[in-house]
Amino acid sequence: MFQIQAFVCNFASENTYILFNENKNAWLIDPGNMNEQETKRIADFITENELKINKILLTHAHIDHVLGLQWAFDTYKVPVTMHKDDQEVLDMLQASGIRFGFQVPAVKVNIEYINEGETLDFDGEKFNIYHVPGHSPGSIVYHNKTQNFMISGDVLFEGSIGRTDLYKGDYDLLINGIKTKLFVLEDSTQVFSGHGNPTSIGFEKLHNPFLK
Fold first, then answer.
1. How many domains does the chain have?
2. Which tens digit of pLDDT belongs to each residue from 132-167?
3. How many other C-beta atoms are found inside a 10 Å radius of the C-beta of residue 181?
4. Is the pTM of the predicted complex or chain greater than 0.85?
5. DSSP state, 210?
6. 120: domain range?
7. Are 97 and 65 in contact (CB under 8 A)?
8. Where are the beta strands (DSSP E) in the chain?
9. Closest CA to 29 of 162, 96, 120, 94
10. Where residue 212 falls among pLDDT bands split at 50, 70, 90?
11. Percent of the chain beyond pLDDT 70?
12. 27, 81, 86, 175: which has the fewest Cβ within 10 Å?
């Protein structure tokens, strides 16, 4: 049985997630920790719960989702899983930092690319991978059918969708991806987004103004 712990991080109120099970195995998803206090909250939770970080996952590589990536890689020494189409976004990290008014070192991590149609295994539980570009070119969603939830990054929010005015954003592509890949899942599917509160597929079908 999976448990999900969220940590709200950095200037964008980004959701960093730790996904873990009764075996104390864990995935660290979108490490956005920006300062010592945020890093300590995440590290203390992992230590206090005796968790073993087996994977670092990125839903996408925008700056607010990767500010703690180098720390996570250096600390837990596991590869970073992401879609290849967001490599160029990750490579732009330093330039993105300047745009937001602060310096960010280039990230040097081991990366394993993952594509739509592949699955990730978590102690025998499968996670399906959906490539849903439009917010960023390599945005991906991680979906566990057994426990009926997804980690959606900035693809889908409670009552909203990811911005499409950023580099290689595409509104029509994003809307189509949500409708054809996410809205075909069960209405009860929980959605853990990159910002804001959790929601569900059924709620967004009924109430999301972008997806009517």
1. 1
2. 999 999 999 999 999 999 999 999 999 999 999 999
3. 17
4. yes
5. G
6. 3-211
7. no
8. 3-9, 14-20, 25-29, 52-57, 80-82, 111-113, 119-122, 125-131, 140-144, 149-153, 156-157, 160-161, 190-193, 199-200
9. 120
10. confident
11. 100
12. 175
